[in-house]
Structure prediction request, 127 residues.
Amino acid sequence: MATPEAGPAADVVYRADCPSRPILDQIADKWSMMVMAVLNEPRRFNEIKRRLEGVTQRVLTQTLRRLERNGMIARRVLPTSPVGVEYSLTPLGESLREPFGRLYDWTVANADEIQRHQREYDPHIHS
Prediction:
């Protein structure tokens, strides 16, 4: 992801062609993180949608496809009539639960302070 530059005062350089960039873009957006959080057990599409207030069917479908493509979740067709689909975390997706959980905990712990800073900042850009 980051590669050190040569020299005595080396700064980290985030290269434009680093393979981590598109992966982070695809798995670290808010809907992906929330989908993975609600997949603490296998769930069907509509159950996931009910747990994610505000997500549209289109966005949820795109998110699930992206997570499946990246190996974070598995999609299983259920032998029911009508045919049902169930989603679950893969071992790779499961390995992100702990770091995502820490990030979520950090956002909750710091939400009041961040919102305070936003309220202080916003009048300056509207003046």
Q: What stands out?
A: The two ends are 39 Å apart (CA to CA). The first strand starts at residue 2 and ends at 4. The mean pLDDT is 88.
